[in-house]
Amino acid sequence: MEFMERGGCTLESGQAARPQLPDCGVIVMQSRFQADRRLSVRMGTTLFLLGLLYVAFVAVLIVLLKSWVLVVVVAAALLGAQYWFSDRIALYAMRGRVVERDEYSRLHGVIDRLCATADMPKPAVAVADMDMPNAFATGRNPDHAVVCVTTGLLRRLEPAELEGVLAHELSHVAHKDVAVITVASFLGVIAGLVVRFAFYSQLFGGGRRDQNTAVVFSAVMGVSAVVYMVSFLLIRALSRYRELAADRAAALLTGRPSALASALTKVSGDIARIPTKDLRTAQAFNAFYFTPALGDHPGAARLLSTHPSLEQRLDQLARISGELGETATPGKA
After folding, report:
1. pLDDT score, position 10
2. Which candidate among 22, 38, 247, 249 keeps its CA 20 to 30 Å from the CA of 172?
């Protein structure tokens, strides 16, 4: 593929120039991210089902533990912490730090132009010093959001590819699905903590408890495990769809599905070459990443995946490319 410069911007050979903002980077196809009604319905349905599950879960814990104050206070405190501090927790866990314009002027420039095109507030911009090429967005709403990219991603991607990835992450913020995933994952976190607490409590204190206490803790453990499994599957289903929705929104905003397809192909291939031990640390945050830290799940195991398959994502981008009449072939930009 040959490239040429036009007005300070890099264009593929044979590609007609599209309307652009000054200083290169964003191809203006529409004024803002398109609303996705199917995504909104899925988010509402997931929150409703998880809300019912959550109420039932808390009620069962109160009955079994006979202490509603403890259950409600702990649950409320953890939900509040996860909602208000999710961006800081994610950045800390992934060793990301907020960066200023003088440190990463190109990164800030692309996000500035995308936010102007999408008519949305600019999120905080962060960089994680990791070789794994990836990006994620987090935060409770568009006014309190962070978009973070790794240094490995910045080293590997061409400007148009980086633009596609950042548009993908910004669409998560604009669609508010980042906040929904954060709140939705709360129930799974609580259930997982209860399972661990009950397990270690039985393991280290079982000999000092009567039979009734043991039965109560076993019941708590069993209910928590079921709740965790149900919430896990609901969140995974929503996560897979929201990634397709973000790909679609980013492709339509930039008008370059092929650039996003190229980024997907490149990032997925490069992640596969990173040692597995280095990816396991990042795997806990798979639901927030542009691509999963570890590869696609085969067959029925895809129900456990946070992302649709690479093939499914590329097929969607190819269809969008055809609808837009894009001359480049998706995945070959």
Report:
1. 38
2. 22
